[in-house]
């Protein structure tokens, strides 16, 4: 458990955005609605939801939706991500999302909140130690 450095105002903005995205989740197969909201270093907020496919492996999680949406909008550099679902218990990001989040924000704060209010505060560095990154691919690590 890592203490969050977010202001109450930023936390509220993230929670509202993540809940708004969750409402738009497309999850006819699992029935699980997930919303994620990123706080960028410039203060902007970028949300995403999970979008499932009948070809299950093509499903995209809320966290990666949020990253790709922000990048599409020209925003890079993130301070925090808040993830929420319509089920009880804090849902932690899957392995694929940990990798993508780490590449875009190695010092990211991660906050996961369940429908019952259960909350986990951690960091992407704690969730994905020894992560591979751009420098490894370029032989600069
Ligand atoms: N899901 C997310 O959106 N984020 C996660 O971190 C874990 C899982 C979604 C993907 C799929 O639509 C559903 O939850 C069940 O795995």
Can you walk me through this structure?
By secondary structure, the chain is an alpha+beta fold. It has one domain (8-137): Cytidine Deaminase, domain 2. It contains five helices and five strands. The protein has a five-stranded mixed β-sheet. The longest helix is centred in the N-terminal third of the chain and has 15 residues, at 8-22. It binds tetrahydrodeoxyuridine (THU).
CATH class: Alpha Beta
Oligomer: single chain
Distance between the first and last residues' Cα: 29 Å
Poorly predicted ranges: none
CATH superfamily: Cytidine Deaminase, domain 2
Q: Describe the global form.
A: globular
Compact summary:
The protein is an alpha+beta fold. The protein contains five helices and five strands; from the N terminus they run αββαβαββαα. The chain has one domain (8-137): 3-Layer(aba) Sandwich (Cytidine Deaminase, domain 2).
């Amino acid at each position: 458990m890592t203490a969050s450095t977010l202001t109450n105002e930023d936390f509220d903005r993230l929670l509202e955005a993540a809940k708004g995205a969750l409402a738009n989740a497309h999850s006819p197969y699992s029935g699980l609605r997930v919303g994620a909201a990123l706080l960028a270093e410039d203060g902007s907020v970028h949300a995403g939801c999970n979008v499932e496919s009948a070809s299950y492996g093509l499903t995209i999680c809320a966290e990666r939706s949020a990253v790709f949406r922000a990048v599409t909008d020209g925003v890079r550099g993130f301070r925090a991500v808040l993830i929420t679902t319509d089920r009880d218990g804090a849902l932690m990001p899957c392995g694929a999302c940990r990798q993508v989040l780490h590449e875009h924000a190695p010092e990211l704060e991660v906050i996961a909140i369940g429908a019952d209010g259960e909350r986990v505060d951690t960091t992407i560095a704690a969730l994905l130690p020894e992560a591979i990154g751009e420098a490894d691919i370029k032989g600069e690590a």
